[in-house]
Specification:
Number of strands: 5
Structural class: alpha+beta
Radius of gyration: 15 Å
Helix content: 10-25%
Order of helices and strands: HEHEEEEH
Largest sheet: 5 strands, antiparallel
Strand content: 35-45%
Number of helices: 3
Length: 132
């Protein structure tokens, strides 16, 4: 989920901008998970995370590239773009342009999303937000 993806814990200020980086992941699920802090899966925390994302990137846009459906699962590739407008984790806003590729994987049961896992490159985000 976006709310967990964009927490300071996943934004690595130690990434090497010239090297490939390990993709960041976030997951929302009805299955138990072990983590610290607030549960990112509650509707209130998801809404708060989205509010923070849109505060940081008020012009955020997702362009969907491909969608793969298989039974009760789906994978969607996307490109996220926007400009930094407010603080995001350790990053100060300087109007930085952000372009991230990602994959959102969903498991659906009935009309409900059971799990949602988002893969994106935290190192690329760090590099883009670290520039003026």
């Amino acid at each position: 989920m976006i709310s967990e993806s964009f927490t300071p814990n996943t934004l690595s200020p130690h990434s090497n901008c010239g090297s490939p980086n390990r993709p960041q992941t976030s997951q929302s699920s009805s299955a138990p998970r072990y983590h610290t802090g607030a549960d990112p899966r509650t509707p209130e925390n998801i809404a708060a995370g989205l509010a923070g994302l849109f505060a940081a990137f008020p012009d955020a846009q997702w362009n969907l590239d491909d969608t793969l459906l298989d039974g009760n699962g789906a994978a969607v590739t996307y490109a996220l773009s926007g400009h930094s407008n407010s603080r995001l984790g350790p990053y100060e806003p300087k109007g930085q342009s952000v372009h991230l590729a990602g994959v959102q994987m969903l498991e659906v049961k009935g009309n409900h999303i059971i799990t949602s896992t988002d893969y994106w490159d935290g190192g690329a985000l760090h590099c883009q937000l670290s520039t003026a």
